[in-house]
Structure formats: C-alpha cells, structure tokens
TrEMBL record:
One Gene Ontology term of the molecular function aspect: actin binding
Pfam families: Vps16_C (PF04840), Vps16_N (PF04841)
The species this protein was found in: Chrysochloris asiatica (Cape golden mole)
Protein's cellular compartments: Late endosome membrane; Lysosome membrane
Name of the protein in its database record: Vacuolar protein sorting-associated protein 16 homolog
Domain Vps16 C-terminal: 517-835
Family listed: Belongs to the VPS16 family.
Subunit structure: Core component of at least two putative endosomal tethering complexes, the homotypic fusion and vacuole protein sorting (HOPS) complex and the class C core vacuole/endosome tethering (CORVET) complex. Their common core is composed of the class C Vps proteins VPS11, VPS16, VPS18 and VPS33A, which in HOPS further associates with VPS39 and VPS41 and in CORVET with VPS8 and TGFBRAP1. Interacts with RAB5C. Interacts with STX17, MON1B. Associates with adapter protein complex 3 (AP-3) and clathrin:AP-3 complexes.
Amino acid sequence: MDCYTANWNPLGDSAFYRKYELYSVDWDLKEDLRDCLVAAAPYGGPIALLRTPWRKEKAPSVRPVLEIYSASGMPLASFLWKSGPVVSLGWSAEEELLCVQEDGAVLVYGLHGDFRRHFSMGNEVLQNRVLDARIFHTEFGSGVAILTGAHRFTLSANVGDLKLRRMPEVPGLQNVPSCWTILCQERAAHILLAVGPDLYLLDHAACSAVTPPGLAPGVSSFLQMAVSFTYRHLALFTDTGHIWMGTASLKEKLCEFNCNIRAPPKQMVWCSRPRSKERAVVVAWERRLMVVGDAPESIQFVLDEDSYLVPELDGVRIFSRSSHEFLHEVPVASEEIFKIASMAPGALLLEAQKEYEKESQKADEYLREIQELGQLPQAVQQCIEAAGHEHCPDMQKSLLRAASFGKCFLDRFPPDSFVRMCQDLRVLNAVRDYHIGIPLTYSQYKQLTIQVLLDRLVLRRLYPLAIQICEYLRLPEVQGVSRILAHWACYKVQQKDVSDEDVARAINQKLGDTPGVSYSDIAARAYGCGRTELAIKLLEYEPRSGEQVPLLLKMKRSKLALNKAIESGDTDLVFTVLLHLKNELNRGDFFMTLRNQPIALSLYRQYCKHQELETLKDLYNQDDNHQELGSFHIRASYAAEERIEGRVAALQTAADAFYKAKNEFAAKATEDQMRLLRLQRRLEDELGGQFLDLSLHDTVTTLILGGQNKRAEQLARDFRIPDKRLWWLKLTALADLEEWEELEKFSKSKKSPIGYLPFVEICMKQHNKYEAKKYASRVGPEQKVKALLLVGDVAQAADVAIEHRNEAELSLVLSHCTGATDGPTADKIQRARAQAQKK
C-alpha cells in the first residue's frame, strides 16, 4: 500500500491529488503542440490538431493539415485544410469538430473528417474579421462566441438551433481584452472579460463592471481566467502572481493563492471532483504544472515537453507528444482504504482478504475487528466504491475480491451495487483499451450514461464492441442492438466499392426482422449517398408501406410507389401517390398509368366526383364509358346549369351517351325528363307558380291542387301515367283541398280502379268520418270489415265478419272491441265462433 500511494500529493491537510498515465502515445508529430491549434473533447473525447496554422513567418503556399486522433493517439482522420484561416477549434457535445474561421464561417466536421455543414456568425464579421473565439457547452447544447475586429462579441448558445446574439458594447474598449471566458448563469450565456484592472460582465441587455470580492491589491491586469466544468466557480490569474478563486457569480471568494510567478500561464483549468468540498486549479506554463487550492502550499510537476490541459468533470487530462495522463483528487473511499496506517473498515477488509489468500490467521483477526465495530457493510461498500475509481484492472479486482469476501459474512447485504459495479468496470475497461481510446472515469461514465457511450462507439464505427456491451448489459433491443445495427447499416450503404446487391443482402442477413429497425431510414441514407437502386432494394425489406411510399416518391419512382400503395390497401396512401403523379406527369401519361391500375383508377374517379368534375368527364371519354358519361351529364345538368336551355342541352348529351351505351331505358327516361322540363317551363309561363324540378307525380298533384284537372289528365295521358296512379294522385289532392263534393263526383265518374277502401282511408286521415261512411258502403266484400272498422262501426263489422265466417276477420273485429259498449258485440262473435266449431 505504501508503494501504491507513492504518486499521491497532499494539498493541505484534507485532500490528496494523484497523476497517473492513461496511455503512452506516439503522435508522430512533426511540430510541437505550441505550433498547432489544439482542441480536445471532454469525457475522454477525441483530439484535433491543426498543423502549421496561419502565421506571418510561414510561407503562404504551405497548406495546413488537420488531424484527428483518439485519446490514445490512434489516428481517426487527416486531410489538407483547403478553406480560410482558422482562429479556433472546438468540439460539440455530439463530438462534431467546429472550426471557426477569420471570416466568421464555422465549418463542422465529423469524427472521421467528413464535412457536415457550415454556418456564419453574422454579417458584421465580413467587414471585421474574427480575432478570437470560444466553443462552450451548456444545458441547451454547444455554443460559439467570437470577438470581432470591432471589439464586439457575438454568440450563439446552441449551434444546432442557431440564434445569433450580439452582446452590448464595452465602453472605451480599444484593444483586445487580456482574457475572456463564457459564464452560464440563470439559463443564459454571459461573457466575462478583462480590460486592464477592470472586469466587465456582458449579458443580453447591458455591460456591467464587476469586482471580485477580497482581491489582493495592486492588480493592474488579469492575465488568465478559467471557469469550472459545471460553470459554478471562477479563477482569475493576475499580473501580481495571485490566483483568485471564487463563485462564478463573483459574489463569494473561496480562496486566493500567491504562486510567485508573474509570467502569464499557457493554460489554467479547474480540477475538482463532484460532491467534493475541495477546490483546486491547475496552472500550466512551458515546463511547469502547478496545482493550487485553499492551502498555503501547492503541488508542482515538471513538464518535460509541451503539454495541453483538458478539463474534465472530475479532474484534468494532460497530454503531450509522448504521454496522456489524468490528474484528479483522490476519492474519499480510495483515500480511506489506501492512506498509510489507515484503520478504516475498507482498509481492514482489504488486508483481511489478502491474508486469507495467504491462508493466514490474521484474516480472522482483521475480520473480527471489523465485525465487533459493526462496520462490515460499510467496509464492503467502501471497497466497491473504491474499485470504481481505480484505473488499474488489477487493483479493481483486488478491491472487488475484498468486497466479495466481506459479503460472505453478511446475511442481508444487497448484491445489486456489487453486480452493477462489476458490469460498469467491465464496460469501462473495454472502452479504455488503447485501440478504443475513450479513457472514461467512473464518475464521467455515470454522468454520460450508457446510451451516450453507445452513441460514441457507433460514431467511431466500433459496432461489434457496442453490440457486445448491449448484450452484456441486457439492454432492450430497441435501445441497444437494434439501434446499433441500424447505424451499422447506414454506414454500410456508404461503401461504394461494394455492389448494391451485395450490400442489400448483407444488411438483410444481419438485420432480418430485428424489432426497432427501419429499412426505410437505411434506404433514405442510401439515396442520400446517390445509390438509388440500393435504396429500392432495401425498401423491399420494409414491411410498412407507409414508410416505403414517401421515399419512393422522393426518388421519383412514382409508379413503383403506386404499386406499393395499392398493395397496402391504404386508400389515403394511394390518394397521396395519385396526386403526386398528377403533378409529375402530363395528362395523357397520367391517364394511361391509371388505365393499368383499376383500383387506382376507381379511387381517382371517386376523388374527381367530389373535387374535379371536368377531369372525371375526360376519364370517361378516354375509356369510352358512355354509361358513366351519361350519368355525369345528368348530374352536371342539375349541379351546374341554371338555365332551362342549358339543362336540356346537357340532358340531350346524356341521352346520346346512353344510346351509345345501348341503354335504351336510360335514354328514354332522359328524353322524358327533357319533355317534362319543357312542359314545366310552359306551365310556369301560363299559370305562374313553381313547376320546375318537380317530379311527374308532383307536377300532376300541383295541377290538381290548382284546379287544373284537365291539364293534369292531359299530362297523365302524355306521360302514360297508369289509371291507378292517377286516381291515387287525384284522391290525395282533392282530400288535401277538402273538396268533398268534387271528390264524390270523381268517385262516381267511373268505377274506381283502386277500389273504395283508399277513399275511406284518406277521409279518415282528414278526420272526416261522415264522408268516409259514404264510401264504406261501396267497399267490396273482401275489404268491407276493414272499412267499417276504420269508420268506427264495430257492430256492423262484426255482422259482416260473422256472415263471411272468416276467422281472421272475426279476430280483427274482436281486437277492436274495447270497453263495456262493445261487450255485446264481443259476446256475439264468441257465440258465432262456438256455433262454427260445433258444425
């Protein structure tokens, strides 16, 4: 243990800091880091180096080289920079490289050097070049802030949703600030800058002068400033060699340290651990690294070569030409276990386990000591927690073996934390491997989450490892394996050296029917890469027509899209394709396409009936469908034409179509309608009133109601209305007019073809029993009982029923016998039934 703590450095009495190597790297750099623009992403992210940046002493013909490496030094991309001079580099939260140029353009590249997009930081930059820039991260995303030649600041808090904000002007600012940084306060990004001995805070509305509380006197300039990883704390390096540390709101001072070095540092970053009360700042010069905090002494390291600092959530990464190291505060659990002469329960448990492996009785002594104090659960938990913060796998195993040993002597210790730590460390050790190059700590891993880590593995095209992690952690397929396979397939379609057939087959063999995988998304990526035929082949595996059709339309494969839409049985989808085809093809080709698709043609006709009548007529003409064409003209005659002449002309066209369709009935009926319309117009002219658009029966009825009996009879003869129908019409009309004498004359004009029961019914409907009784006596024998019952003569109806000896009539009369008054009649019917049964 004493050897294990050899690289621990105390800072005051309450904290230790240690620096250990992550990787031994071989960059093969031709220039020092000081001659490169450098950008390293947090959370063990990639490193970008822009070699030979634009300098006056360099020959303008030399093109700079942009190189991207993993944290372990494995090359990921390298290409000549062919655009304008670059001011600053930085990584977004999605691990996209942002390159800010002097002209204000920001070029965005992927991890493998693929160009993604670009955007501009405003028109002002075109006239005043960019002097300096910062890429920063907030809860809203990744932002960019620039300082222009006019000494004005412009920023965007989220490059994914670009909204430029020009910050207020700083009064009297004539030169470039000695230092500046981004602060995130109250969900907004602010800029803190130093001009001589003064500090200014720029927000969206104003520029405010601020003063750090408790700052040592004699400061004439601020040389460097740093904000913590979580934007909660701020450090200021002054020209007097003092480092002021306090809250980012500049309302509280934490401490101040005099480093006795007045030379401006190359870098200054915070080094703090989540939920730790210790605060420390790491300051780097050319050959010296200093860790300072709330202690009278500092920790100093000698730098053998140019180094670069990368602030992390729980420490600082330090890389140079030959090594990549991590500096951080020793976690409490590790300190309790490993510090010299520690009697913490975790330290005793670790010793007990080691002695047990040696088969020594001291193991029992250590274990009894822990149990007597009742600290065995705490000891197990300390060992589990310390294992998470160890980088060396051997030490992780040693601590986990100690935890497992201690668990054996506990009855109810929950195994979840132990199992989860084993899983997490296995994942971390896998991604820390030199060939993977993501040196995540346990705290960073928990903050980043497994989903984001998987995304980063996918971004590096490490699909097998990502799938193995998903299977090992037993993640749901939709969140794990399916999603990764979909990304793999999208990458696969970009391999243009493989034939479309082979790529489609390989993707289908690998994906099959994996839930959560959309072949349409993969096909869309293939189409975006210019591989249309591959996209069509991939769409054949897509089971959802609703996903196939839109992409086929986008690829201008409309006829294939129509076939897929028809196969799906989704009418809305078919209509979508039809409307797209209508706009894409000329009229003739569109109609020819429809003729080959009967279902689509039928649906389009339904659409035209409600939306485009003229197109519907053209369809019928093209198909020589005279029957439907005739029906179309009949509908059109009533829907579109108001003048009688136009309506008759449309009906004549319809009649001609029906004759061509050999539908003589429809043709004759149409001609009769034309005759009726002409007659109705003549009746309106001669008699006034409303006749147009009445049916033949209504026309006759209207004439009778108007007293035009002769005209009504003539109309009936002209249109061959049967006598029975005419009598019904006249009977109803006269009863409505209550022309009872005229009705009686009409009934006696000749023998009624409809009988006289209708007369009784109509009179009773008009509540005229007197008139009804006149016709009841004239009703034939077979309807006599019904007529008498209608006029309320139950007794006579009974007599007739008895005379007819009809059981149905007797039952009908009996059902109308109600109350005491009809009692004798009912008895009479019962006696008649009895006599009939005797016989």
